[in-house]
Amino acid sequence: MSRPIILGIVGDSAAGKTTLTRGIAQVLGPENVTIICTDDYHKYDRKQRAEIGITALHPDCNHLDIMQQHLSLLRTGQPILKPVYSHTTGTFEAPVYVKPNKFVIVEGLLGYSTRAARDCYDVKVYLAPPESIRTSWKVKRDTQKRGYTEEQVLAELEKREPDSEQFIRPQRQWSDIVVSFYPPSDDINNTNGHLNVRLVLRPTIPHPDFTKILDFCDNTMSAIRLGLDRDMGKPVDVLEVDGHATLEQVNKLEHLICSDMPYLKNVCNREVNPEIGKVAGTTGETIQSYPLAITQLLTTYHILKATQIYQ
Ligand SMILES: Nc1ncnc2c1ncn2[C@@H]1O[C@H](COP(=O)(O)OP(=O)(O)OP(=O)(O)O)[C@@H](O)[C@H]1O
Ligand SMILES: O=C(CO)[C@H](O)[C@H](O)COP(=O)(O)O
């Protein structure tokens, strides 16, 4: 029997979850996707958290039991009455009735923190940019969209670090894919908006056969690289795509991902889908990121594979 396919996107605050979620929803067709942000399951509002002295990253600051119940309901195609947390006001709003579409993307801080929650996903992604990049993203986003000053954001990040270490980063181990956008050099202000991506591919789900990459990118200096490594002690494949990879190189990689997936083949066509890999740069300008495009496509590939298995 058909049921919704659930993608998890987990990572620390401002790690890029919403950006990746929107890109994948765009590829799948927004009308086919239900997006759940687990920030809505916070137990306390912004003022209460400050009074109690608890951070939003702590499991005790979130209704994880209700989040888990809702994930189980969504997985079986049932509707939920979802709480709503507003980042604009830092308070809760009236709950909303949510009926799952064909695909459900659940993005947030603590999505993989319990076994029962983890069991609900078909595909699990963890976002892990270097902390310097995450800090700059959080400062920019929270000052522009959430009413904080830069000093407040930096102080909050410092206060949150113990909880990030204890509760957020360990969730990396449960993911099928770890995504790290990173600057090509140590100077994060001089990336020209073009970040590379490092994709850690665990053997927990079957990935496309990337060994064919070696036919067109055969040395370690190439802008697209495939290698072997260990992640949290476990053997993994690693695919890296540089921000300065050429369109020709990226097209070959995209076709490799899309070749056995008819729907993705259409999506891969930039004329059909010019939005793939688009992201807002530091000054609001739109940047075309090939590393982001590949990440969106690979994740979509796995969602569609899960569809073939379960629908
Ligand atoms: N791949 C990327 N390339 C360039 N900039 C990015 C990328 N991903 C995210 N950003 C920047 O970082 C900011 C924060 O990203 P985003 O809102 O996606 O994070 P998040 O993990 O959803 O955050 P939160 O959990 O705090 O809501 C964005 O506003 C965007 O400017
Ligand atoms: O870590 C976060 C994920 O988005 C937020 O800081 C958390 O959800 C609390 O939101 P706000 O800072 O808007 O009160």
From TrEMBL:
Involved pathway(s): Carbohydrate biosynthesis; Calvin cycle
Kinase keyword on record: yes
A GO MF term: phosphoribulokinase activity
Domain of life the protein comes from: Bacteria
Gene3D superfamilies: P-loop containing nucleotide triphosphate hydrolases (3.40.50.300)
Reactions that this protein is recorded to catalyse: D-ribulose 5-phosphate + ATP = D-ribulose 1,5-bisphosphate + ADP + H(+)
Protein family per UniProt: Belongs to the phosphoribulokinase family.
Stretch forming the signal peptide: none
GO BP: any one term: reductive pentose-phosphate cycle
Domain Phosphoribulokinase/uridine kinase as annotated: residue spans: 6-183
UniProt name for this protein: Phosphoribulokinase
Organism listed in the record: Fischerella thermalis JSC-11
Record keyword ATP-binding present: yes
Pfam families hit by this protein: PRK (PF00485)
Enzyme class: transferase
EC number(s) reported in the record: 2.7.1.19
Keywords on record: ATP-binding, Calvin cycle, Kinase, Nucleotide-binding, Photosynthesis, Transferase
Matches recorded under InterPro entries: P-loop_NTPase (IPR027417), PRK (IPR006082), PRK/URK (IPR006083)
